Amino acid sequence: MSKLGGITRKFYRETRGLKISGGQKVAAGTILTRQGHIWRAGINVIGRTHLVAGCDGEIYFTRKKSSYNKVITYINVK
Asked: Cα 21–25–7 angle (5° rounding)?
């Protein structure tokens, strides 16, 4: 039986992760990450695991330590 439409489990891993890089210009509604617990929503970013740009602008990253000394990367839009 063949699979019609969608994506197979074999290639699903490739669709996850960071979709943009620092300094890149994005429009509002652009998907920034998919299923990433490494990154958190910063300024003008919406979501928890699927992060989306809240407005037009340029991407930049900031890093902060959590209460357990774990480094967390925040994705922000200027």
From this structure: 60
Do 24 and 54 form a contact (C-beta atoms < 8 A)? no
What digits encode the pLDDT tens for the residues 20-55? 888 999 999 999 998 878 899 999 999 988 999 999
Whole-model pTM?
Answer: 0.77
Pairing of strands 39-41, 71-77: parallel
Distance CA 73, CA 78 (A): 16
The total of other beta-carbon atoms located within 10 Å of residue 71's CB is: 9
Q: How far apart are CA 11 and CA 3, in angstroms?
A: 13
> Is domain 9-77 in CATH 2.40.50.100, yes or no?
yes
Alpha helix (H) ranges present in the chain?
A: 9-12
Q: Please state, in angstroms and rounded to a whole number, the distance separating the CA atoms of residues 69 and 47.
A: 23
